[in-house]
Amino acid sequence: MSDTLADGVGLHVIEQFVDAEQQRHAGQLGMWAWLVTELLLFAGLFLVATVLRVQYPESVHLAVSHLKFWIGATNTGVLIVSSLTMSGAIQASRLGLQRLTVYCMYATAALGTLFILLKLYEWYDDIVEHMAPWLNQPYELAFDKPSTLFTNLYWVTTGLHGLHLTTGVTILMVLALQARAEGYLSRHQNRIEVFGLYWHFIDLIWIIVFPMLYVIGR
Amino acid sequence: MTYAAQRDAHVPHATIDAPKDYLHITHTVKSWLLSTDHKRIGILYLISITGFFFIGAVAAGLLRLSLVVPDGSIFTNDTYNKLFTIHGVVMVWFFLIPSIPATFGNFLLPIMIGAKDLAFPRLNTTSWYVFMTGALFAMLSVLFGGIDTGWTFYAPLSTAFSNTYVSLALVGVIIVGFSSILTGLNFIVTVHTMRAPGMTWFRMPIFVWTMYAVSMIFLLATPVITMALILLVMERTFKIGVFDPALGGDPVLFEHLFWFYSHPAVYIMVLPGMGVISEIVPAFARKRLFGYKFVAYASIGLATITFFVWGHHMFVNGQSDYASVTFSFLSFAVAVPSAVKVYNWTATIHKGTLVLDTPMLYAMGYIGLFVIGGLTGLFLATLAIDEHVHDTYFVVAHFHYIMVGGTVLAFLGGLHYWWPKFTGRMYNEAWGRVSAVLMFIGFNVTFFPQFILGYLGMPRRYHVYPAEFQLMNIMSSAGATILAFAYVFPFVYLLYSLWFGKKAPDNPWDAKGLEWMTTSPPPLHNFIKPPVVDFEAYDYEAKVPEA
Ligand code: HEM
Ligand SMILES: [Cu+2]
């Protein structure tokens, strides 16, 4: 890490590592490796979306125009702000400002929750409007069969992203509660750095998902 | 002890301060099941995959039994379909893929680079539990009556037609994928961050390089099949229509996603074997590995090119000619790094002082069979020939030569080579040699006829065939019987050695590498004293320096 840490900020070295530097590096590299895997997981969905867009442009257009663009757009904004507060938490933790770190983490978790609530409302609306072909109910665009594929893909993709975000908020809340403990930053500051990578990643995935589902071909 | 003294086989170990080895620190079952020691986890994996190997082998035996008669009267068609599916699924996902990385890799990688453990020991324990959970699902699907799609799970057969427990098996395979990913992640971080002082990248044994390359494939390819299989399950459950043409989906898309993982997966299965062979050959030829850097780069080369050849499984499914020609060309390119390795092993053997102990016999068998498997791969990559032999026994023989003749022989070679290190015991050398030779013979009798059968047009996955093919099928089944003995022997004499074998010295083969500089079996954190590396890999010709 090129970023310097304030005095008294660092980590408690566990037995398999030689020193703090090694442990810090290992933790972060581990998260990066995990994120590469996650990216390829989502890549499968991106590929399917591309194939559908090439094969059935008309139907995709039809399905896209039934998605709730403004909720999606608002949520994009919400996540971008949450990445900002997460960066705030990381920076504060490096400087040893424990109170500020915890507050920034709370704010991030709150924004994440806001995203999830908006998303739930959106899904609810989709169901009410008969835009859930995988449910046992009539489907709004039943006259256009291929549009079903795209609408289902929308559910799978946003569902998987929602799952990641829910996991993220849960971990974040646990971390934030732990981070209130005396001397936390001198023992576990790296956890906040590592978690931050994950949080930014969920944000980044949404930034790909949003245009892929809601914007292109609207 | 200085490290120079540590390296000298003639200097006895300082036994006074030697801690207990990893097997004898604690004895309870719990201490094994909750262990975070990479060595114990390697052993847990070894026990589990041995179990799966025997399950897969029983299915194979029944398949060969059925094929003794041409009229398919021994089993019903449904049963036969289920047998080859169980065989393929268990062997590929529950034996071959985890085989060398999760056992030898877990046990040896930290030792070979002079680390105390992997970077994330608890994650490592978790990966074993994830593996066993996935296995549980797959085994349940077998107990409930089996699945009949083949190990390839092609849609729409798997999504719209099969009424067996496909989803359950798919969930099992998806879960197992995560255990591979966790292992790969652990290896990559460990190799990057935990090498001992002096252990530069180009001083790492080739085995570590291949583990690194395999981990890359785990991280980059496994998630793609995870997603493809998740979509399959969704399609079976909710009819979401990604792959089923009746719903507007595209079945070829599944083949793309499947082979984008599964061709790299064949290198997950074969690269570790290459790593093992690269350790055994120099040790028993008493020479440096020829062209060390080329072999290291070839491992990375294979792991890269392997991502761009998946279309050679789809030559006859209607993909465009341009695609076919490109994939054909790239498949030829993949053979180059493979050949580099074979030449380097051969050159290492050339003018070496050969010691034909059991591990070396397995290694030589490996080289021979891998060459045949690889060359027939080139036949298959040739468009005109593949039109003729696609989906015949020729393909079956090709991949068995590589996966069984190659990987399983390498696995057993490695098991014998490192057995003294793992267990602290020596096995019976005579039985070892007999089994190794028997395996080579049994293997060829089983699978060589299949090349001919396939060339003559016998399709795979059918058990009713024209009477004129019976003779060669009987040969193949007879060979399988020999092979069965060749697998049971090591199982018996290795187990026997655990209680009655001679105590193993620290370095029974006089081999080089950090794993031979610690005790057999190693202590909890692998080394009595953290090693400092001031020597190259495989320095067999080096003089022992003065202490
Ligand atoms: C030297 C490089 C190799 C080349 C050029 C090659 C080429 C091919 C080709 C063209 C096919 C498709 C044949 C067909 O379906 O008509 C094939 C099938 C196969 N190969 Fe290879 N191969 C190579 C190495 C390997 C290795 C190293 C493994 C495994 C460790 C392997 C395992 C398989 C398997 C499992 C199949 C059949 C899959 C199935 O349809 O179930 N191959 N190979
Ligand atoms: Cu392939």
TrEMBL record, chain A:
It comes from the Bacteria. GO terms for cellular component: plasma membrane. It is a multi-pass membrane protein. Gene3D superfamilies: Cytochrome c oxidase, subunit III, four-helix bundle. GO terms for biological process: aerobic electron transport chain. It is found in: Cell membrane; Membrane. Pfam families: COX3. GO terms for molecular function: cytochrome-c oxidase activity. Keywords: Membrane, Transmembrane, Transmembrane helix. The chain crosses the membrane at residues 31-49, 69-90, 102-121, 153-177, 197-216. Its main location: membrane. Residues 1-218 form the Heme-copper oxidase subunit III family profile domain. Belongs to the cytochrome c oxidase subunit 3 family. This is Cytochrome oxidase subunit III.
TrEMBL record, chain B:
Pathway: Energy metabolism; oxidative phosphorylation. Keywords: Cell membrane, Copper, Electron transport, Heme, Iron, Membrane, Metal-binding, Oxidoreductase, Respiratory chain, Translocase, Transmembrane, Transmembrane helix, Transport. Its main location: membrane. Residues 32-534 form the Cytochrome oxidase subunit I profile domain. Its EC number is 7.1.1.9. One of its GO terms (biological process) is electron transport coupled proton transport. It catalyses: 4 Fe(II)-[cytochrome c] + O2 + 8 H(+)(in) = 4 Fe(III)-[cytochrome c] + 2 H2O + 4 H(+)(out). The keyword Iron applies. The chain crosses the membrane at residues 43-63, 83-108, 128-147, 167-194, 206-234, 258-277, 289-310, 322-340, 361-385, 397-419, 431-452, 472-496. Signal peptide: none annotated. It holds the Pfam family COX1. It is found in: Cell membrane; Membrane. GO terms for molecular function: cytochrome-c oxidase activity; heme binding; metal ion binding; oxidoreductase activity. It is a multi-pass membrane protein. The keyword Transmembrane helix applies. Cytochrome c oxidase is the component of the respiratory chain that catalyzes the reduction of oxygen to water. Subunits 1-3 form the functional core of the enzyme complex. CO I is the catalytic subunit of the enzyme. Electrons originating in cytochrome c are transferred via the copper A center of subunit 2 and heme A of subunit 1 to the bimetallic center formed by heme A3 and copper B. Belongs to the heme-copper respiratory oxidase family. This is Cytochrome c oxidase subunit 1. The gene is ctaD.
